[in-house]
Design brief:
Length: 258
């Protein structure tokens, strides 16, 4: 259980892993700052958390905007409790096109939201995390940040960059009271990841998980975040790679055909 006077900021908190993480961290005792673009979803989430006895604040934020992220930092600074945890979760994939034909705009969007979004929010909150004396930055990357696959070039490039950011930051913060944790999930079934990747094509999105008995859930990843964040502060989980039992490697997925 976190100290009662500790703030955790979760980006991309309006759905999927972000929303599950916000719920879980609130249950662990954090005052959660739920950040994402969709204010209506954030408000509903915060209401739900507070109805369960938790503490949460909604801060509409677009991680691709400097001004928006500055607003997030100002909102966090206005809270009475110190911020000790940042979960950089906002991100996503667009398309499954080969390098030869993948739209540059898709690559650009993926770099901006996954990499530069993490950079912006981390830069904005790092001074406060350092001041807390016991900060943690968690970067939600992906197994695509460790290995590439056909059609995944733009996403893998962005996730590799996000991983590089986390690894570099850990080196640079050595000696400071901020640990840097990278979590790399494999196949996670969430409401929106596939839909965003395939431009709203629900059938194609569902096909990713076809025949897979139990893909990971958003709650599984929230559990990993909570575990990393609640270790004693001298314990730095550098990298946590997590896949469903049915996925032994990126290309090795056990599927049952009906
Ligand atoms: C999602 C994992 O395999 O779809 O981050 O790239 S994968």
């Amino acid at each position: 259980m976190a100290s009662v006077a500790s703030v955790a900021v979760v980006t991309g908190a309006s759905s999927g892993i972000g929303a599950a993480t916000a719920r879980r961290l609130a249950a662990e005792g954090f005052h959660v700052v739920a950040a994402a673009r969709r204010a209506d979803r954030l408000e509903a989430l915060v209401k739900e958390i507070m109805m369960s006895g938790g503490r949460a604040t909604a801060v509409p934020c677009d991680v691709t905007s400097d001004a928006s992220v500055a607003g997030l930092a100002a909102a966090v600074a206005g809270l009475a409790a110190p911020v000790t945890l940042l979960v950089n979760n906002a991100g996503g994939a667009r398309g499954l096109d080969p390098v030869a034909t993948g739209p540059v705009a898709d690559w650009q969007w993926m770099y901006d939201v996954n990499v530069l979004g993490t950079l912006r929010v981390t830069q904005a909150l790092l001074p406060a995390l350092e001041r807390s004396g016991a900060g943690t930055v968690i970067v939600l990357s992906s197994t695509a940040g460790l290995i590439v696959y056909e059609g995944g070039g733009g996403y893998a490039a962005a996730k590799h960059a996000q991983t590089a950011l986390a690894e570099t930051l850990r080196l640079e913060l050595c000696g400071q009271p901020v640990r840097v944790v990278e979590i790399d999930p494999g196949m996670v079934r969430t409401e929106e990841f596939g839909l965003v990747r395939f431009g709203g094509d629900a059938e194609r999105a569902a096909g990713v998980y076809a025949g897979v008995a139990e893909p990971l859930t958003a709650e599984d990843i929230a559990d990993c975040v909570a575990w990393c964040a609640t270790r004693p502060h001298h314990v730095n989980v550098d990298r946590l790679v997590v896949r469903p039992l049915a996925q032994a490697a990126q290309h090795k997925v056990h599927r049952v055909t009906p």
